[in-house]
Amino acid sequence: MVGETRTFTADNLYEYIDGAADKFTQAGFEHVQTTDYRFQKTVDATADIYTMKTPEAARQIFEEESSPGSQALKLGDRAQLSDGTLLFTHGRFYVKVVAFGNSPGVAGGLETLGRAIEAKLAGS
What we know:
Number of domains: 1
Number of helices: 4
CATH class: Alpha Beta
Helix content: 25-40%
CATH architecture: 3-Layer(aba) Sandwich
Distance between the termini: 19 Å
Oligomer: single chain
Mean pLDDT: 92
Radius of gyration: 14 Å
């Protein structure tokens, strides 16, 4: 982890994702925690963990943000990896991990980070 974890609620989500905040709040958003990570000193990424009111709300956002042609992964309830972005759901959590740059090892780093996040969510 690099830096502090920031939390945004429905009242200030627009400060973090201006333009997409309405989509989340209308789906059943509660709050998001966002943290920057560095994986093996080669992959920098931001992980956003959205807590939604229901698993259905998490699935709805996942489906809206999914990209055609993405690689499906066995992670959480559903997951996909594409172009430096990992998306997955775990119960009522929607997780989005975005890498900065597309260097070798990005896909593996995102998957490793996603599995660590999933383990924490499973324990909560």
